[in-house]
Amino acid sequence: MLTAAFSEFVDPNPSAGNEFGDTVVALSTGNVVITSPYADVGGTDTGAVYLFNGATGVLISQLVGSTANDKVGEYGITELSTGNYVVRSPFWDNGSEAEAGAVTFGNGTTGASGVVSAANSLVGSNSSSYVGFHGVTALTNGNYVVISASWSNGSFFSVGAVTFGDGITGVSGVVSAANSLVGSTGSDNVGLYGVTALANGNYVVNSYAWENGAVANAGAVTFGNGMTGVSGVVSATNSLVGSTESDLVGEDGITELSSGNYLVRSPFWDNGSETDAGAVTFGNGTTGVSGRLTSNNSVTGVLDLDISPGLVQDNINNTFFIRSQDQKTFRVGSQTDGFSPLSLNAISDVMLNENASEQIVNLVGISASGPDPNQLSVTATSSNTGLIPDPVVFYTSPDSTGSLTFTPVANQVGIATITVTVEDGGLDGDLGTTEDNGTFQRTFDVIVNTLVDIDLRVVGSPTLVESNGEIASLPANQNWVSEWSTYWVEIWMNTDSTSSQGIFSANLDLNYNTQYTSATTIEYGTGFTLNQTGSVNDLSGVVENLYSETNVNNLGISGYLLFARIQFESLVDDGVDLDTLNQTIGPYDLGFLISSPQVTVVSENPVSTDVNLFQGASIWANPFDLNDDDKINYRDLISLVGVYGAIPSESDSDYAWAADLDQSDRVDYRDLISFVGNYGKGKVNDPDVNYPSNYPEAWNNLLRVSSEPQRRIKTANLTQTEADQVLEKAIEQVSEKLTPEMSQALSGVEVKVVDLSGATLGRAVPGTIYLDVNAAGYGWFVDSNPFDHSEFAVDSQLSLIALPDSAAAGRIDLWTVILHELGHLVGYEHEAEGVMEETLAPGVRKLAEWNENSDLFFASVQDQAELLSF
Predict the structure, then answer these.
(1) Which of 428, 449, 470 is the last residue in one of the domains?
(2) DSSP, residue by residue, 149-218
(3) Considering the entire predicted model, what is its pTM?
């Protein structure tokens, strides 16, 4: 209501048709804002807005347009709770850009003066943007929001913009995504359907015609902070959005709850194939809600026009009710925190191989809505019962966890979608009264694949196969090669699935250690004749893109199918040097590894591949080539003659250990004869070296089991963690008694669990101890407290034997083996008795000899043995 101490305010620029007084607003400051939209101050109908002293009628400020028909102030004045005001001039021209529009902030005490421009106003930069045309919403905290639903971004008309303005300082400049919430597509009309000012000062923007990319009229509702606003392009990141054409999210409006939170009503949202099922989404009045509208974040209908546009607020109980269109079912929500979550955590897809056993899937995060406690039930169905029958659910209400089980149908492959439904008792907590029950669903896929096994084998010469490329059993793997040798790596495949109709194609890479040998030739199996590809990248150590197809059915089912074989040779830049520092010729891992395998079958069933454990292959240096020049000639002979007669264990020579070709600890006539037999050979002209019969085993001290098991024993494999723990205890046990040289030898030593050949239990090379994965078939006894020997009884002074009912009975003692290999690392050879014996029987623990001259290495073991009481 205007209150003034005088009869009228006088038009400062009187002229017929000015329409002075078209809008009159008395501000809380006591001043008065009056518009004259057709005033001719700056030209015909440029318009003017005046601020007068409400007590004296004195003019305080004058805001005017500059171009004919700017009509400044024509769309009115919005008063802010701060006492300031906002002027709307949507037809203002920005130079040559007609009707770009402007909204000007005015101070309630000093007003807004001068000509409208981007310096004092929020303006459009493109024609027909009509900034401010759709209103200014005053927020409860004194700030304001400008709605320009027809704003153009230069590329599209009517993308729309909503701009936040500070109620003390206002906002000016050109409308853009930097200062406004904007659309990105023509006719997005952001803000066209209103801005809801919440009681706490925040606001919600309704743009239900917004397009989600190519999805027309998906709709978006955006939360804005009342102190900072929201800017940028409308998206699922900052808005609640639809995902189906004509979802029209927010079409039925925004309902503010008495709690300050709000509800978004979307009666035309589509629930999958059910069009216009409808949805109501709870939004927190402090943080809002964003993301794609789904049944997980909203109450949604399941039938056409299911969710009624109406809802009922119960402010006494701080709740609200949503009814279905036929008013037979209800959902209740809290005005404070929305809908109690009827929920189930997401379930990961399950991938299986054909003829897999029974599967168990855990269900987690089960909860009900409505009263607490509420009745719950969980059911599950399969989309493909010929592959996966409907699962059996194990669940007890009101637990938050449960499980389901299923067993794939034998000899079937494919995909089945499992739908898990959680249902609660609704408002009355009674599952029997289904009208008000709530439901929630999760789905996951079960993919049953044809399994194709892939095996690697290292062979000295190509394996003979049948005409179709198959073989009944895999060839033996050659686990070591010598430095100059030529060998082949064969890749084999097979499947047990008769429904697969056999292997059709394969594609993979073969990685190798290019330092020692090089891939030189690729040959495909006789079954793989079509579309062959593959190349050798020796610089990176990979045979790349090995691919081929078959043209015969049922390959790889009744036998092992050769996919490809690759020849490896020692080329000019390859080689294995003698390690004179550590006095070793190997072994060095050849590094064979299959990567990125992809296999298809004739039936086009889904396929999974399993690259079986490769037994490994190592390469050893040629000790005859003492100077590593790839020739056995007079230079090597000179080196051998120079240490002839030496005892390597006592020699300071760098070559005595290598010239001891039979590893007898003496360079003698036997070594000379062996050398002469290979004299003149070389990697290029004659690489076939005649090695001693104990090459390469004799070059590393190998601890072997005394006898191999008469039958295969089912044993657990040794884990890396177990091996690491025992090694740590062993080093700790002996560390205080080691000489500095011994300590240096054990510095940084590590243990590796591998598959050693035959009866070998362990092997030591400088810095590393290798242990057989299952103790040559007997299994390991891993002693958690190896210092008390409680599982053993005395057999002799240097030997303990396992008690019949102990865990050590019939097993290989890991403690003994690790101490044995540590002994080798510090320079001890095999001995006739004790821990350094060459073989070890199952169920036996070996001790070191104790007397005044006992080796310091085993001093701590002696201490423990003396404490035994039997």
Answers:
(1) 449
(2) TT---SSSSS-BEEEEEBTTTB--EE--TTTEEE-SSTT--BTTT-EEEPTTS-EEEEETT--BTTBTT-
(3) 0.50
